[in-house]
Amino acid sequence: MKKIAVSGYKSYELGIFQENDIKVGFIKSALKKRLLQLIEEGLEWVLLSGQLGVELWAAQSVQELQADGWNIQLGVIPPFENQESRWSDEMKMIYEEVCAVADFCQPLYKGEYKGPYQFKARDKWLIDKTDGCLLLLDEENPASVRFFHEEAKKTRSRKNYEIMLITPFDLDEIVQEIQMNDPDFWT
């Protein structure tokens, strides 16, 4: 796979309301671990829409990998201009930083939000332009990521499209790994 889309829950769907929440670090660690495996197998591009939560954390994870010398490109394709207009100032700043240093950043539609069809078009576009996707998803509680997942499953039935999941079990493993490697955990 040369290009993947990344998506998942919005931060509030995970009960995360501050960027310094410890859960953000665990999620970013899980994303980086999976992305590193894919980069070593030839991944060149990560595409996402930059929505709050998993997508922004994935973008930050890609940028951290780039800073560590990994050869990976980031494309941010929001569904429309100013998707961040109703976000908190902190989240707007994070989004703007991500877009400023992304290798490619351009909205799918010119202009502001017009309707839910823009989100459907975003999902289809991201899936059409990639070889697979990486989703943070608990299939028992899919929340809004279910729409992307359903579209990806439709595509998988028509062509060879790989759907990779980071599950709650994967997150538990990451938490255990981090705790095991923390000398303060044992004291």
From TrEMBL:
Family under the similarity heading: Belongs to the UPF0398 family.
Cited Gene3D superfamilies: 3.40.50.450
Annotated NCBIfam families: PRK13660.1 (NF010181)
Organism: Aciduricibacillus chroicocephali
Pfam families: YpsA
Name under which the protein is recorded: UPF0398 protein QR721_04450
